[in-house]
Amino acid sequence: MWIFDKNRPDSNPYQTLPFYQITQCSYVPKPLPWTPYPHFHDDEYELLFIAEGAFLVNLPGCVVPVKAGDVIFIPPSIAHCIKDNIEGVCVHYAVRFRRYASGNCRQKESQEEKNVFLVRDCRKILMFRQILDMIQKIGQENEGTIDGRIQALTFSLLEIVGQEFHSNGEMIETSAPEYANDIMQYLQNHIHEKITMEDLVLQFNFSASHISRVFSRAYHTSPIRYLIYSRMRTARLYLLKGDLTVPEIGRRLAYHNTYHFSRAFEEFFHCLPEQYREGQFKNEI
């Protein structure tokens, strides 16, 4: 299940030292439709705790194999995704948080906080799983809201994890041309418009083959597939909010008819938009 911070920032008494704001805690027992597609968070750090199985974490310009017992730290603005499940199991926990959420003591980020780190065969993984299971249990009791108990438990978890990274972490070097990220940002910002490879050629002044090659090397998918992914993630949120009809959602996402939008959605989520809405997958927001 997913647990989110649904409190107003000014009502949260736990936004104090060390100036963290916990934004999401999740338990993911199986691959999700969007896990093979790259994404990043503008201002959120993400910790992945690998509980069972083994899979690959795709990062800009590199692929990192992880397995049960590993913990990986991904800072903001680093695109990442999970791909190529190796052992048929892909169970992990994820914690997202913001730094210096209170705004009262905004410190300068260190260079280390811009790098990906990995602890292999973490000695404290069983302790981490116990804490994470407690967080999930509390979340089930309070309808998935991050409250003071969850904040306190997660702060403790972050403190212990930080010590593990300091003692046993290895830095993962990522590399991608700067304009590859610009292409990703452009696609994200134009999901409501009709975008073709010709548009990308005009925007970035590179050939279509060069754009595809650079983007695929950096993010392990094509620009057009990433555009479709971004639209489907947004369509899913529109459906869960419930204030737009399916044809309206399709038009907002630059599909010229409902049929093509529904087919694209079904290919991605393995059900029609109406079925997804009726299924009320509210824990997936």
Please give a structural write-up.
The chain has 285 residues and is α+β, with helices and mostly antiparallel strands. It has nine helices and nine strands. Helix content is 40%, strand content 20%. Strands 1, 2, 3, 4, 5, 6, 7, 8 and 9 form a nine-stranded antiparallel beta sheet that branches. Strand 3 (45-59) and strand 4 (62-67) form a beta hairpin. Helix 1 packs antiparallel against helix 2 (148-168) and helix 3 (178-189) packs parallel to helix 6. The N and C termini lie close together (10 Å). 31% of the residues are buried. Mean pLDDT is 84; it is low at 13-18 and 101-112.
Approximate strand percentage: 15-25%
**Overall pLDDT:** 84
Pattern of helices and strands:
EEEEEEEEHHEHHHHHHH
Give the overall shape: globular
User: Can you count the helices?
Assistant: 9
User: What structural class do you assign from the helix and strand content?
Assistant: alpha+beta
Distance between the termini: 10 Å
Task: Classify the helix fraction into a percent range.
Answer: 40-55%
Total E-strand runs: 9
Largest sheet, in brief, is: 9 strands, antiparallel
Nearest-angstrom radius of gyration? 20 Å
* Unreliable sequence segments: 13-18, 101-112
